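Minutes, structural biology subgroup

Action item carried over from last meeting: produce the structure token record for DUF3097 domain-containing protein (Streptomyces goshikiensis). EB confirmed the sequence was re-checked against the source entry. Recorded below for completeness.
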Amino acid sequence: MREYSPDLTPQWKRARAVPEVAADPGLVVEVAGTDFCGAVVACEAGTVTLEDRFGKRRVFPLEPRGFLLEGVVVTLTRPARGPAAPARTASGSVAVPGARARVARAGRIYVEGRHDAELVERVWGDDLRIEGVVVEYLEGIDDLPAVVADFAPAADARLGVLVDHLVPGSKESRIAASVTSPHVLIVGHPYVDVWQAVKPSALGIAAWPVIPPGQDWKTGVCRALGWPENTGAAWQHILSRVTSYKDLEPTLLGAVEHLIDHVTS
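Output recorded by EB:
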């Protein structure tokens, strides 16, 4: 028969039980012993990924007493698996597994340049294929009135145009105003270039640099950020950091969604 052996450890030295909290997405915690505070974005077996307010992500082990929730020490646990959420496209739409691309509509969406087209494809590509919407780029909008006339928009062949720097008094706004067809919708964003429609947090920078007038904007951005002055490579880096609509500014999101609605209605 085993003899009873009491725990002689002083009460003040015994580890106190701490609350266990499920690491649900969006839960904001502080990592014990550090100054890192962030929201849960993923939780795998044995680790949790946190994202701070600057968009920086770090992975931490799910150790006992490893986190603080509103100043209280807690142990994070892996959330219980619930019903699987429907898969989403990069634009946030519900994905349609196995869906085939629709035959292209007569309507089109025109954007100013290749970078605009690549960004739209990256976020809305799945949706556009299902809807049968083709996106083409114009290499600028100086000849937009002639392009529209050549396209000959109609009720069953609507045209949508996305314009950079569409602000009152700009050259772009004057050109857009000269197109009066009821079957054409021209919308835009206020940024000098579509690069700026990517949130700085997605790139790990505080803000897009201000480039003085008279300088090539993209080259100036590369210089200000310490990147090689290769705008093509810079754009590929920027594009690679865009994984969903959450990485884009709301102004661009609203404009593109409006265009898709216009050409598919």
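Discussion: The CA atoms of residues 22 and 43 lie 10 Å apart.
Next step: EB to file the record with the rest of the batch.
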